[in-house]
Structures are given as C-alpha cells and as structure tokens.
Amino acid sequence: MGRAEVPVRGITGMEAVDATYRLLDEPVGERHRIRHRHRHRQPRPRRPRRHRRLGAQLGGTTSRSSRLVAERYDLPTQVANDANMAAQGERTFGGASADTMLIRVGRGVGSGLIVGGHLVHGSGFAAGEIGHVVVGTDGGADCACGKAGCLETWLASPRLEAHLADAADDASRVAVLREAGERLGIALGPVVAALNLGEVILAGPHDLLAGDLLEATAETLRSRTMGELHGDLSLRMTALGRDIVVLGAVVTVLTGQAGIS
Ligand SMILES: [Zn+2]
C-alpha cells in the first residue's frame, strides 16, 4: 500500500479532473493500458447500471468528472463529497449511531448527515452543509461566499489559527476556541432537534477541536435543546484519523459497485 497526494487548494472544474489524473495515472494507469489493449479483442463491458444512475443523480459538473475519469481508466467511477465519505466511514468503522452528523473542519467546514442509517443527499446534494449558514445576528468576518459571519469564518482551521496567533495570553486563546465552539453549537441546535440526532462527530485538527471548543459546543447544545428529548446526544471527536474519508469511500465503492452492504 502507498500514499500519494496532490495539491488541490482552490481548484475546480477541469483543473480538479487533471489533479485526479495526476493522482491516479501511476497506480491505475498501468492497468488502464492493459485494459486498453484488450479492447481490440473483446467488446467493452457496459458500465453497471447503478454507476450510470449515480452519475445522472450527481448533476452537471460532478457527473462530467465521473465520466471523464471512468473513460480514462475504463473503470466504474463514483464521485462523492469528502464530508459525506467521512460520515460513511464513521458509520461503518467508527461505531457512529444511525442518526449522526459528522462535521469536518479543515480549510472549510463540511458536513455529512446520516439519518436512519442512510446517507442523506438532499435536493441539491448539499444536505448537512452548514458551513455557509450565518451564525447569529451580530455580523462577523467576511466569508469567501460573499456573506459575513458564516460558521466557516468562526470554525475553519486557517481562521481559528489566525485568531489564536493574535491572542495575547492563554485566557484569550481559550476565549477564541470557546467562541468557535459556541457558534458551532448555535448552528447545530436546530439540526439536532429537527432530526433527533443521536450523535455529532467532529473530524479535523485535534489540537484545535478537542478540549475547550468541543466543551463549549456541548454546553451550547445542552442549553439550547430540550434535555428530555435530546439529552442522550453524544458529541465527540472521531477516532479514525486522517484516513476517515478513504475508509468511507471504500464502503461506498463496495456498496455501489460490488453490492456489499
Ligand atoms: Zn460563507
């Protein structure tokens, strides 16, 4: 087993597809060429029906990316959101409950939502995405999306690190982390209540999220939701580490392509 990475910061569209090629050409390319030679002698197998259906569901850009990658390597291909894959990984390998929200904090804030044991996609394939919900009515920092005070401006790693670098002492650092945790709790409250979630799981930098931030989120959720109804809600960090997205993708491929569930 090997590990390979390509930088993807800020890239979209065909640039993202090219980055995928750079990542896959070496490990998959050899097999691609072998399959390519075989194609002269035998008809190309039809893609599994589920793959075609999934491509249509995912909509324009994603469907096109999936088709381009599938054609380059002559392999069934699924394109999926990283936070959704993390949620799937947590559900299968991390013991997450059937009603779980996974919040993935990195350069942005992503989220995957599992309800009744199933990944929820939503009408525009953005279910659970609370990163660009404005939290509070007191303004906040400008966000890349054009609004101000989105959850991402409080919680994304680069923003948190910048605020912590500006903090004068330990008390100010704790205040920064607690503020971010409270904003996350405020954003999560209605979601937890509406869906009666059993678990909220955070994935991201342990040094930022575990501790004061997570505690403040838990306190905020407790104070803003009905304890009798949502008292058994568990809020924790993932234990799956950096491979959480890959693990979820493995589950998705096994389920989607091999029919294993
Ligand atoms: Zn925003």
Provide the low-confidence segments as ranges.
Answer: 37-60
Order of helices and strands: HHHHEEEHHHEHHHEH
Percent of residues in helical segments?
40-55%
Order of strands across the main sheet: 3-2-1-4-5
Short description:
By secondary structure, the chain is an alpha/beta fold. Helix content is 53%, strand content 9%.
Structure in words:
- By secondary structure, the chain is of the alpha/beta class.
- The protein folds into two domains: 13-79, no CATH class; 82-245, 2-Layer Sandwich (Nucleotidyltransferase, domain 5), CATH 3.30.420.40.
- It has helices at residues 13-38, 49-58, 60-73, 82-93, 151-155, 157-166, 170-195, 206-209, 212-224, 227-230, 244-257; strands spanning 100-105, 109-115, 118-119, 199-203, 234-237.
- A five-stranded mixed β-sheet has the order 3-2-1-4-5, with helices on both faces.
- A hairpin with a 3-residue loop joins strand 1 (100-105) and strand 2 (109-115).
- Helix 2 (49-58) packs antiparallel against helix 3 (60-73), helix 4 (82-93) packs across helix 11 (244-257) and helix 6 runs antiparallel to helix 7.
- The longest helix is centred in the N-terminal third of the chain and has 26 residues, at 13-38.
- It is globular, with a radius of gyration of 20 Å.
- Mean pLDDT is 84; it is low at 37-60.
- Bound molecules: zinc ion.
Key terms:
alpha/beta, Nucleotidyltransferase, domain 5, 2 domains, 5-stranded mixed beta sheet, 11 helices, 53% helix, binds zinc ion
Break the fold down into its secondary structure elements and pairings.
Elements: H1 13-38, H2 49-58, H3 60-73, H4 82-93, E1 100-105, E2 109-115, E3 118-119, H5 151-155, H6 157-166, H7 170-195, E4 199-203, H8 206-209, H9 212-224, H10 227-230, E5 234-237, H11 244-257
Parallel strand pairs: 1-4, 4-5
Antiparallel strand pairs: 1-2, 2-3
Helix pairs in contact: 1-3, 2-3, 4-11, 6-7, 7-9
The structure holds zinc ion.
